[in-house]
Design goal:
Three copies of one chain form a homotrimer. The first copy, chain A, is α/β, with parallel strands linked by helices and 199 residues long. Chain A has one domain: P-loop containing nucleotide triphosphate hydrolases (Rossmann fold), CATH 3.40.50.300. Chain A has seven helices and seven strands, in the order βαβααβββαβααβα. In chain A, the strands form two sheets. Chain A has a five-stranded parallel β-sheet, with helices on both faces. In chain A, β4 and β5 form a beta hairpin. In chain A, α1 packs across α7, α3 packs parallel to α4 and α5 packs across α6. Chain A is globular, with a radius of gyration of 16 Å. The interface between A and B is medium-sized, with 22 and 25 residues.
Chain lengths: 199, 199, 199
Amino acid sequence: MPKSTARKGRLVIVTGIPGVGKTTVLTAALAACNARSVKVDLVNYGNMMFEEASKKGLVKTRDEMRRLGVKTQVQLQLAAAKAIARIAAKGNVLLDTHMFINTPIGFMPGIPSWVGESLKPDSIALLEADPAEVSKRRQKDAAIRAREADSPERISEHQLLGRSGAAALAVQTGCTVVIAHNREGAAEAAAKVIADLFM
Amino acid sequence: MPKSTARKGRLVIVTGIPGVGKTTVLTAALAACNARSVKVDLVNYGNMMFEEASKKGLVKTRDEMRRLGVKTQVQLQLAAAKAIARIAAKGNVLLDTHMFINTPIGFMPGIPSWVGESLKPDSIALLEADPAEVSKRRQKDAAIRAREADSPERISEHQLLGRSGAAALAVQTGCTVVIAHNREGAAEAAAKVIADLFM
Amino acid sequence: MPKSTARKGRLVIVTGIPGVGKTTVLTAALAACNARSVKVDLVNYGNMMFEEASKKGLVKTRDEMRRLGVKTQVQLQLAAAKAIARIAAKGNVLLDTHMFINTPIGFMPGIPSWVGESLKPDSIALLEADPAEVSKRRQKDAAIRAREADSPERISEHQLLGRSGAAALAVQTGCTVVIAHNREGAAEAAAKVIADLFM
């Protein structure tokens, strides 16, 4: 069932595969909200999970997170979801996360049903980019962050699977789905699509 | 879980984006059922929701419906679902609705899980058409019904999201999914695909 | 919610449409597991359902299964799921099934939510092949197994719907999704992707 009337702000989840340009777009979206005097907290699901994992001594770096077993990640997801729900109860939240995380054992859902049920988002915004552009960006970043040099075909599969996951979550929770296209040199346009969800 | 054995007829949901030619196909599907002496009630989900909204004084025209908040639409969805379930208990129902409604805050699920659970459809028939044709039809109708002049690319996204939503509902409720193609000048063929679901 | 800690092995579901080459790939995957001394039981969902149906006198041949009503198939699905869960409690299981079965009344979900909840798979591996190749294989087999001579377009729809169903199940149960491509003459590569899920 959809969210209760107790929540004060809106909870908008933004997902996007590595290399889609999410950091740039989220920064611009927050700036657009600020320019319109709309207060929004940016929360990173991975950071929240990393905090929980660090506390438990499971990992030392963020990159080690994807090597954790499915079971451990599920527990961290739930702990993070509860923490985020507490923030969302007080005001607008822009939640930075992934629909599917590419792990050694397949695409793991970043927002499984029990997390969706706990978060009860208003909207899921899928930030997408041209797979060929994403592939190029990943190759440039390879030295720094050791991303998989995925082919455009594999990137496209990952991105499309995200749409299906969002549709499933929308059907489950009643949230809306927004597809925001991050075209080369047009991050502001994608940011506006996201910022408008708080207006 | 799937529908109980108490229901007498079949409940077939037909979805399709604006401009897909749904009205024409549904009319032809009903005629095909009549020609074979199979009694089917055509029910429009939007009309049922509009009736409920009108009773509550929330709207005066059908077009105002998509300006309502998510929470209000959810309540109207539930009220309509209950009314439809009462009709379906007595005989065959062809339910005209949308998988995702294009609202100012994104694609809103027309058949969220609690509605699916309440309806327990036998089948979901996705009426689809070539996005370029849909785009042309929308432009022609613009003067009359003020539809968004969507690009074929956006229309394709909307249509594909509908398939993902139908797959999610099929997994949830056990209903079957049918993709009916409404090709230019061949509405009868699409209508037959839908009518056959009642044979 | 995800699987309990009581299970000893991993449960990997492999789905693929008729003609995708699943039998060949599964045989090679089992051989790869054996070569690495990893014990895996191959279980065929259709066979388990057929056993249950035979016991009840509902069918005599495997092909008659798809002519059964939805309600009967649901009961058979549940009985099979329980039997499989008992096997999976003891060790690794490779479960051969379908995401959507092409029936006369549409694509029926092979792993509806109550089955997914009962199985709690670790991963769903979607075995896919080029629709044109699948179409050719079906035409060659037509004399023997009376498969529908589907067009590549229809085959592509069926295959894509499977991805959406897998995404929905992943969101529901937390399992991972793997897309394994069965390219012409490269069944070993697809088999390795599946076998690696047990390492």
